[in-house]
Hints:
The chain is α/β, with parallel strands linked by helices. It has helices at residues 14-32, 47-57, 106-116; strands spanning 2-3, 6-12, 38-43, 63-72, 75-84, 94-102, 122-130, 143-147, 153-154, 170-175.
Amino acid sequence: MRVSGAKIKTLISSAEIDRRILGLAKEISAQYGEEKPLLVGVLKGSVFFLSDLARALGDGYPIDFLAVSSYDGTESRGSVKINMDLASDIRGRHVLIVEDIVDTGMTLSALLDMLRTREPASLRVVTLLFKPQAYKGDHPIEFIGFSIPSDFVVGYGMDLDEDFRNLPYVGIVESL
Ligand code: IMP
Ligand code: MG
């Protein structure tokens, strides 16, 4: 499919995403029971996933956001900068980080180290996409939507220099 001149190959359709999110919501509610966690969306990529996941989970899951910078074009950077912090105090609370994609895990590792110093009751991660061959982190990823090859993907929140975020599916950019 061509999107603003670029050729995008569908990797995960919108229907597959919807179906998997219902499955993830079941796994998450089974894990936490009545101790519903604060959903922490990592801006900006996770907004689409978080809003669909939160609706699949139903009432009782508060949401908050933070923003970190990690990516410049298609190259990963080893450290993160907090551009916008949480509005909530997470001390003593169950926290579930909501990520669009975990690639090397460098961003996530730095983020988890920072959040651990605030002493949440628990800290877990749900990511829509996981690249197992690229992952270098030591934290287990508790909830994974799809494991994918190490190709650069776009859509459903993920961008290439701010393009393609609004696609309702996940695709691979074949040519620009
Ligand atoms: P990591 O630190 O390598 O795990 O990558 C962190 C961030 O880079 C993710 O949260 C995304 O925002 C971005 N990223 C990693 N891989 C991709 C990709 O394939 N497409 C778009 N963004 C990506
Ligand atoms: Mg991200």
